[in-house]
Design brief:
This protein is of the alpha+beta class. The protein has one domain. Helix content is 50%, strand content 24%. A hairpin with a 2-residue loop joins strand 1 and strand 2. It is rod-shaped, with a radius of gyration of 25 Å.
């Protein structure tokens, strides 16, 4: 009697493994995709903020801040994320600021799913000559 039960369960470990993997693999890829998007977003934000600070200094322009942002993104991530970087001038509470904006598309990690469009900006108050 004991032997017949054992033969009934032969191969059930393979089926259990496949069923568990059907749930775990998409879950793992989803977590990996979120981690990738957060890494790219945080890197782009830091590069835009650094470029804005650089462009706001007395000897530089917003365009030089955008160029600095491009070089940081290219060195950290990839050149394709640095294709749409703009530098400009804005105002916050009456203070003149330098604004560096970055737009990029994060591709999907797996074979399915949409890419994500990100737009981040860095702001810095522009220095003035007080002489």
């Amino acid at each position: 009697m004991l032997r017949s039960r054992r033969h009934e369960q032969d191969g059930s470990a393979v089926v259990d493994f496949v069923l568990v993997m059907l749930v775990l693999v998409p879950l793992f890829l989803g977590i990996l995709q979120v981690a990738l998007v957060l890494h790219v977003r945080n890197t782009l934000t830091a590069a835009a903020a650094e470029g804005a600070r650089y462009g706001a200094t007395l000897d530089h322009t917003p365009e030089s801040g955008a160029a600095r942002t491009r070089s940081q993104i290219t060195g950290t991530l990839s050149g394709r994320f640095a294709q749409h970087v703009r530098g400009g001038v804005g105002s916050v509470h009456g203070a003149r600021t330098v604004v560096v904006t970055v737009e990029a598309d994060v591709p999907p990690l797996g074979l399915w799913g949409p890419g994500l469009h990100l737009e981040v900006a860095g702001h810095a108050i522009q220095e003035t000559d007080q002489r």
